Queue: 3 jobs
Job 1
Amino acid sequence: MGIKSDMTKSLLVSASIAHVEELMSWFRDREAVSNWGGSPFRYPFSRESFLEDVYWDRMPTFVLLDTVGTMVGFGQTYEKEERGHLARLIVSPGHRGKGHGTVLVEQLSEKARELFSCSEFSLFVVGDNEVATRCYAKAGFEEASYPSGDIHYPSYKFMIRKQS
């Protein structure tokens, strides 16, 4: 069972291995994978290394499907400092610029609220990714100080959203 959006009728569902295999085709180079998954993410990758690096067995993983069932987005969530942390957010290259990022953030935040009983959310974004930063700001995220104890990566911003 997924969460429906009134705006687009997109559906957030648990990801399958087939979804992850499709996701792998969205990355054409090391920079794209590193910006999305972090510098430790291996490239070139195999199916096995991708599943390991995406923490397939350890992290709730979801995909956003459009009205005809096409996978248009991917994201994960976990609890971090009593917040629902959104991770590895991406919209399919062929579906960018159509509002799917905003829907993905909203629906994944709602899923994090259900899973972790949280009212605040966080995420990291590559500092020069202006499109993603605008998407997150539109969803109510603001840049914040890095969590204490986290390694600080100068090329990434930490953002939080307090629930209204």
Job 2
Amino acid sequence: MNTQFISVSSNLQFVIDQAITILKNNGIFVFPTDTVYGIGCLYSSKSAIEKIYQLKGRDFNKPLGVYFSDIEMASQYISGNDGLFKKLAEKYLPGELTIIAPKNELIENYVVSNFDTIGIRIPRNTFLLNLINQLGQPIVGTSANLSTLPAAKTASEAYSIFKNQIELIIEDDASIQGTESTIISIANGKIELIRQGILNINNDLL
């Protein structure tokens, strides 16, 4: 397999079209976010999800994150009252935050390792948000690395890890800040800090 390497600076819509074609054919790609590079696929592609775990050597008990284009799309996949999610999302998203919330039946269990929650990401990245919006459905992903090793902070690093094993790598190094997202959970109806990342959450909320 030859891995395509494309920069968003070439032609944004062309890059989006290439990614859509690959994703709709159950392909895998490395994509830029606002923190570190991710590796992902369509949320509905079970075969591609399984391959991501295999490529990374990732424990199947660790769920993938789910990436959305906006708050409205993410709300469609949350179970129960989404008031607390919307309050946080309107303050911090798009941005460097993962919000763990109860999922509904639209997210299959194989996406989230049989958990009843999803980790929601709406990154501040023009390419990724436009891609998901044009797809009309979420993608799932995790950091672009081999498990236990640091996440790729440049597209070239990602290429050295996954070359000839995946279909596409999208370069947008300018958007990468190099520190992973902050993770909070609202699964129990209150805000719990799971991982302190690049984004600082207002202490009054915790």
Job 3
Amino acid sequence: MTQTKRTGFLDDKPWPKKLVARALLRETSGAVRVFGYAAPEVVSLLGMDGLWYLALRGELPTKQELALFSCALGIAANVSAADGAVHAAMIARLCGAGSARLLSTAAIGASECAQLMATTDRLEDAGDDFVARRTDAVAAFPTVPGLAECKHRMALVARLLDAAGVGAKEQVTIAVSVAILPLVMAEALAGKPNAFDEYPMNLPPIDYVEGP
């Protein structure tokens, strides 16, 4: 008795035979090109900000676009141990996480923090640092509209990134994550693994109440 071979939609569909790379190309020499540009040369000429811009947009920035992008990253780099992303990385370090797990924790925390920051663009920030950064941005980029009207750090960052040509939601989230990550790692690496006696375990103090 001949049995009919059972198939599903994964078997029936004619799938591609090869994985298609759309951004990266490894040449026979071993060199890697990103959207057609050699990564070392991009970093040498434009710095890591230039390479990140290329990754986000698929093309090299103009001098003005790179200046806007770098300015936005600098303003976005504003987190402390009071922020969840930093605290999570500090806990990972405290618990003895290796470098790979520590970086993973920091990267996830930074991206979540970036998404949260993006939802607060309608709030007002009257802090001296924000006001100073906004004043500097207005002076540096007088032709970019709306900078002086920004009431919050993320609104200013988003406006600068949009003017730089990378204002899509996913581009903004990734750019802010990139800006935050070095700060997150700095605080995490400054801690000592397994130094539990230095961590405020009962902050805030736990008030135990007996049940009924």
